[in-house]
Write a structure and sequence with these properties.
Elements (H helix, E strand, L loop, with lengths): L3 E10 L2 E6 L2 E7 L1 H6 L5 E11 L4 E6 L2 H10 L7 H10 L2 H9 L3 H4 L7 H11 L24 H12 L4 H15 L5 H12 L2
Parallel strand pairs: 3-5
Antiparallel strand pairs: 1-2, 1-4, 2-3, 4-5
Amino acid sequence: MIAFLSGLVIQMELGSCVIDVNGVGYLVAASTRTLAALPNPPEKARVLIETVVREDAILLYGFAESAEREWFRLLTSVQGVGAKVALGMLSTLSPGELVAALTTSDKATLTRAPGVGGRLAERILTELRDRAGKMPGGGGGIVVPASATPGGGIEADALLALAGLGFRRSEAAPVIRRLLDEQGPEASLDSVLRDSLKALAR
């Protein structure tokens, strides 16, 4: 079982990166939050890993911090929450926001994540509500949802992620601000990044 990888980040894409460890390139899926925290290629990084073994593949999921990996493990324990949905939730919501949503039964916040509909959000609340307080992000003071601060954390995280993909701040910033204005309270890091990449690729 791989616990972490330490090597050169040689490639970054939306949803994954490649880490060169002594000449072997490992494809690692990750949330936009983790990708934004990684250095620009080709620089060295240490990424925590969760290995998922399937009949047809061995998949690696990377995390910049242990709190996110713990949440990934907890979320994927819920029936219907696969690795892709869990990463989408971690891209949209911080550990603190997850704790707040679960402890207050805030289904609307959970459905901001891609792939999480009302029924799945209800199941997540039912299964994880009692465990949320023991998870990282609990008891850390007041949690301000990302939707309450448009242009704040989302804008900074999106700029970092796009810089890691090779886009200049001067060209990315106006696009991000426009999308935040258009999407309003419904804006999420995942949606802003996705639409920014479409706009910048034109």
